[in-house]
């Protein structure tokens, strides 16, 4: 148990003994300090650039906060990184002071001691500037290493290492190890490898991420728009997981099935039959992008044409729909009055012994910078009259229409291109719910 034997202010005793187990030294307020009980240091951590310096102050304190006369000593933990010397002008409010200056890059510390008490100030010195070297281009799925050269104020290299911290300007395009600077390409584009160092210096280097070469196989090297194309991954290739996308040239393709080791995509229309590439993106956990040569064999005619230009020749939905219950077709926006015009597409739906309720969902993508509109219409077997309903005909996207076809009756499902001259081509996708 603690016993306070006397409290002295300005040298005058104000209180007498309090009962207790043992005696302790007197406490002082404003008078001569008592023995050192705490060591106060001005900083716990310094982060400086080469050429900079900082002053550390230290004071011994007694039990009630009076500064003692104990002088502090300052010792560098690593003289090759941090040099310590007496501070010429001291540090206001502290009994003793020292100047800390860099001897080299890196992390060190300064040990402060007074009256048998010890404290530590962490010290980190970084470069004034930095220069990054590394690849200008990295293929998706491959690695490239970036390195850094620390520089002083005059631009001369500095020996030593610091606590570098690497970052990518876009983790969707380029991943980079925070400590080593080893980067891996992901999605195509341009990103920057950035590095930050103690003291505030930072630098960056731009890198272009290009698609890798697809090592798997295509079912064919070319196909007509609207047809399904199977792609199989290589034995050690990236999986076709849920977010994989496909693009033929500059045109996005609808993906019908993603099955891990293989996938199906619908060949899109393009305005050219010139050789191009199929780009597969976001493959596997590493989000790899790879390309393979591919050709769209017909610029604007889809896989069902020209039969589906005539209502009574439109193919049977139940025969041609994909494994995901979709039909993919193409309509042309340059067809107003031309021979072989493909403004509208027709498909056949037949009810059996009982009536059949069908929900059709239509969505589409137009050629670049266009906003053409498609509508759902229904007509009877020879398309001499509208039937069903028009709840899908409007400006909505997607268009959704539900009809009930009477038993033993054939209707025609009609994709109507409302904007016949607005776009060069439109890729359409129809999903049937039954």
In short:
1% of the residues lie in helices and 47% in strands. By secondary structure, the protein is an all-beta fold.
Give an overview of the whole structure:
With 434 residues, the protein is mainly β. The chain has 5 domains: 1-32, no CATH class; 38-126, Immunoglobulin-like (Sandwich); 129-210, Immunoglobulin-like (Sandwich), CATH 2.60.40; 213-296, Immunoglobulin-like, CATH 2.60.40.10; 307-432, Jelly Rolls, CATH 2.60.120.380. It has 1 helix and 37 strands. The strands form 10 sheets. Strands 21, 23, 25, 26, 29 and 30 form a 6-stranded mixed β-sheet that branches. β27 and β28 (262-266) form a beta hairpin. The longest helix has 4 residues, at 317-320. It starts with 6 loop residues before the first strand and ends with a strand. Residues 1-28 have low confidence and may be disordered.
Task: Set out the fold topology.
Blueprint: E1 7-9, E2 12-13, E3 27-28, E4 38-41, E5 45-49, E6 53-61, E7 73-76, E8 82-86, E9 96-102, E10 106-114, E11 117-126, E12 129-133, E13 137-139, E14 143-145, E15 147-151, E16 165-168, E17 174-176, E18 182-185, E19 189-196, E20 202-210, E21 212-213, E22 217-218, E23 222-223, E24 228-232, E25 245-248, E26 251-253, E27 255-258, E28 262-266, E29 276-283, E30 288-296, H1 317-320, E31 326-332, E32 344-350, E33 356-366, E34 374-379, E35 399-405, E36 410-417, E37 425-432
Parallel strand pairs: 1-3, 5-11, 13-20, 21-30, 23-30
Antiparallel strand pairs: 1-2, 4-6, 6-9, 7-10, 8-9, 10-11, 12-15, 14-18, 16-19, 17-18, 19-20, 22-24, 24-28, 25-26, 25-29, 27-28, 29-30, 31-37, 32-36, 33-35, 33-37, 34-36
């Amino acid at each position: 148990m603690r016993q306070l034997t006397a409290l002295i202010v300005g040298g005058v005793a104000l209180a007498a003994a309090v009962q207790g187990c043992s005696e302790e030294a007197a406490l002082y307020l404003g008078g001569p300090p008592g023995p050192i009980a705490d060591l106060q240091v001005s900083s716990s951590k310094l982060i400086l650039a080469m050429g900079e310096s900082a002053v550390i102050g230290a004071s011994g304190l007694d039990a009630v906060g009076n500064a003692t006369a104990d002088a502090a000593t300052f010792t560098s933990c690593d003289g090759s990184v941090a040099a310590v010397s007496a501070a010429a002008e001291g540090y206001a409010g502290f009994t003793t002071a020292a100047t800390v200056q860099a001897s080299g890059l890196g992390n060190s510390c300064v040990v402060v001691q007074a009256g048998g008490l010890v404290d530590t100030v962490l010290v980190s010195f970084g470069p004034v500037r930095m220069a990054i070297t590394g690849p200008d281009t990295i293929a998706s799925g491959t690695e490239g290493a970036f390195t850094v050269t620390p520089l002083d104020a005059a631009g001369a290299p500095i020996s030593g290492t610091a606590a570098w911290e690497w970052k990518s300007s876009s983790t969707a395009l380029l991943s980079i190890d925070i400590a080593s600077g080893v980067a891996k390409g992901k999605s195509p584009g341009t990103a920057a490898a950035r590095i930050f160092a103690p003291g505030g210096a930072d630098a960056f280097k731009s890198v272009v991420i290009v698609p890798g070469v697809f090592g798997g196989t295509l079912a064919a090297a070319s196909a007509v728009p609207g047809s399904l194309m199977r792609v199989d991954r290589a034995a050690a290739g990236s999986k076709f997981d849920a977010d994989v996308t496909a693009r033929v040239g500059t045109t996005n393709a609808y993906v019908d099935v993603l099955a891990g080791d293989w996938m199906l995509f619908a060949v899109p229309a393009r305005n050219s039959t010139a050789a191009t590439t199929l780009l597969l993106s976001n493959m596997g956990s590493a989000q790899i992008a790879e390309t393979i040569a591919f050709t769209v064999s017909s610029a604007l005619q889809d896989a069902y044409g020209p039969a589906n230009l005539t209502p009574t020749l439109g193919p049977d939905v139940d025969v041609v729909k994909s494994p995901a219950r979709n039909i993919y077709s193409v309509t042309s926006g340059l067809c107003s009055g031309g021979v072989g015009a493909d403004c509208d597409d027709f498909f056949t739906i037949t009810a059996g012994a009982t009536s059949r309720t069908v929900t059709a969902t239509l969505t589409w993508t137009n050629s670049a910078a266009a906003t053409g509109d498609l509508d759902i219409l229904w007509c009877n077997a020879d398309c001499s009259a509208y039937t069903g309903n028009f709840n899908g005909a409007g400006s909505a996207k997607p268009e959704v229409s539900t009809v009930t076809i009477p038993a033993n009756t054939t209707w025609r499902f009609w994709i109507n291109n409302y904007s016949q001259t607005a776009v060069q081509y439109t890729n359409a996708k129809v999903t049937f719910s039954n």
